[in-house]
Design goal:
about 140 residues, five-stranded antiparallel sheet, about 20% helix, SH3 type barrels, alpha+beta, about 30% strand, two-stranded antiparallel sheet, 2 domains
């Protein structure tokens, strides 16, 4: 997920959020993607292609039902709790790449502002507001 905000006089005037979904991929993935990546059509019974327009409509309908929650502190808290509950990054070993540094550690929490908290191997917690977060494969 990528997001970008527009600040006007120190206030957020607009936010653009984008997500990427692997929708219709071939059944035979390249070896370097097996076990790492998937697509939606790989998870339907017959592997048939997914209707992208229908998928977009369904995603927008779901998002529309959540937008009003942003208008109240209770609603934002509810969304944040749900995000924490569903976040698969928590507990994962990650590398965080930022403009001025790169670090590795374990994603340990989502703070009250929605930022990822990563704890490095020395026990130092870093709050990540902006950066690329890469899930690292377990060392076997």
């Amino acid at each position: 997920m990528l997001s970008e905000s527009l600040l006007v006089d120190g206030e957020v005037a607009a936010v653009v959020v984008g997500i990427g979904l692997n929708v219709n991929w071939p059944a035979d993935l390249p070896a370097d993607l097996v076990g790492v990546a998937t697509s939606l059509n790989a998870h339907v019974a017959n592997g048939a292609d997914i209707d992208r327009v229908g998928l977009l409509a369904a995603v927008l309908i779901e998002l529309d039902s959540l937008v009003d929650l942003l208008d109240s502190p209770q609603g934002r808290s509810r969304l944040l709790d749900e995000y924490r509950r569903r976040c698969v990054t928590i507990g994962a070993r990650v590398r965080v790449e930022m403009a001025d540094m790169t670090t590795e550690g374990t994603a340990t929490a989502i703070d009250d502002d929605g930022h990822l908290v990563v704890t490095d191997d020395d026990g130092i917690a870093l709050v990540v507001a902006v950066g690329d977060v890469i899930h690292l494969r377990p060392v076997v």
